[in-house]
Amino acid sequence: MSDRAATSAGAHAFRSPVSEAPWVRVALIGVALAFLALFLFLPLVSVFVEALRRGVGPALAALADPDAISAIKLTLLVAVIAVPTNLVFGVCAAWAIAKFEFRGKSLLITLIDLPFSVSPVVAGLVYVLMFGAQGYFGPWLAEHGVKVIFAVPGIVLATIFVTFPFVARELIPLMQEQGTVEEEAALSLGASGWQTFRRVTLPNVKWGLVYGVLLCNARAMGEFGAVSVVSGHIRGLTNTMPLHVEILYNEYDFVGAFAIASVLALLALVTLVVKTLLEWRFADQIAAATRRH
Amino acid sequence: MDMIADQTFAGSFNGLPGHGRARPMDVRVEGLTKEFGTTPALHGVSLDVPGGELVALLGPSGSGKTTLLRIVAGLDAPTSGRVMFGGEDALQRTVQQRNVGFVFQHYALFKHMTVFDNIAFGLTVRPSDRRPTKVQIRERVETLLDFVQLPGLGKRYPMQLSGGQRQRVALARALAIEPQVLLLDEPFGALDAKVRKDLRRWLREIHDRTGHTTLFVTHDQEEAMELADRIVVMKDGKIQQVGTPDEIYDRPATPFVFDFIGQSVKLPVSVKGGKALLDGDVLPITLGRSQDGPALLFARPDDVALAGPEATGIPGRVRAVRRTAGHRLIEIALGRDNHLVEVAVRAADAVSPGEPVTVVLKSFRLYADDSRAA
Fold first, then answer.
1. Which of A199, A212, B154, B183 has its CA 20 to 30 A from that of B167?
2. Looking at the complex, does the CB of residue B215 fall below 8 Å from at least one CB of chain A?
């Protein structure tokens, strides 16, 4: 350091060149916090406040309603089917895209993003068009006594469609960044393809996989648009939690609507808490897995 | 890393199970060609590596040396040609079946596994009838850790090790499967100069003790010279020369090899009637029988001396003087077109820029220059 620089800087406390003036920092943080409070925190709190407006009793009673219980059960059933399905497909798709070169790869990547870019209503309508009474496969399905639309299979299909990208999208960049050199090392040491996948590839992407599954699950339970189109809103049969909330709300049963909504919100919060806990508990491993040597 | 007393080494080697029994494997490559799309990476490469030899594949980037190594390992397939391990066609076998120890350029250690699990990996993935017991695996890993001078580091993760330590773990992992052939891709490429020099000597010792047929890829001619029994110099997917370090250095087959191996003084001359001309002026050097036409004159720095302006030799003028550790590097402009050559002199011999000097060639080689041929 030259003397000149030392004396001119001497009067002020040193500030890192990439940092900003204190008032800029305070302003930026303030704006961000105010925005979060207004648009995220306040609405979330109001869900619970509305649900408990008449006390705990009516809220619990609304949840104990048979239609509500069946909606909760259906939502869990759909998630239990859709999430593992997308886990398997997502890993396969990410594996294929990240580790191999083939024709039509960019097309496949675009297709994986399709459920994100298409409106869920359109997704639902597509299934009606395919499997509905007047749809392509409708008559054949009716002949064989299989009901897809306005039944549980349709809801599951629509949910799988909408939540497909979560796992794949989380894994593709991770796998691409890691490349194939560790796999090559495993193969050269005599490991079979399956052993390589299970012992090298999978552990390297496991945190990405966990995030993908959590997000996929949150969306599977919360999906409204696509499910709404294919469900038919049959109470006690084809109503998922989000659909049930809408029905109750339209019937001016605010306590019931917000009680179910709070359960949905709670499930989302649990997802986030689990994610945070995992991040906190396994911080070393996550850092080790994402940092390059 | 420090030098380890011979005794320690011998002791740990003797305890290394599975080594010293099998005869080292001969490796033969015949007419190997590899094309990536339409770009050829290898052009009919043939090479014989007798069992137990330590061979360097040396060349600039893009010369095809890594491609050759990967094909021998089974990580890539050739477009045509043959790879033989002993009397057997290795191309009929998958990478898993070839039983090669491959050490990757950036180690490729499994970063989610401990050092112990990394080294044990090749043993634990064996089918149950060939898999050693847990106790045997533990013993083998401990022995290997001693062997690569990392005792007690089994519980660390690769991230917690230095570059040189990672490289040694990678080697231990490759040795654990009792490979028939050891292949190393730029084994010291990512290490700093000091560590590299130590590991070089260490690898040579390991090779001498385990006796594996070993091929390693490098772009560092010094590393190849110091380490290898034989050097394979490659350029543009073709082998330029195969020979011992002495042969490669003292009798380079092509101008490329001369230039690539070690420092050299290079002058574009033309030969006419047994005389060498630089920019039209006859040089006071004696040629053997040589064809007329454009040629390249090469000399090693050791064979180039500097004399005063009155001496017999090639007259030139000092352009710049630079100091290196043990020498002074003098940059001299020769001929009418100011061809720059660099001559190293003792640090005590001071000359200053602008001084007229004479360059005396004690020994040189002449190659016909096809690129300038009419």
1. A199
2. no
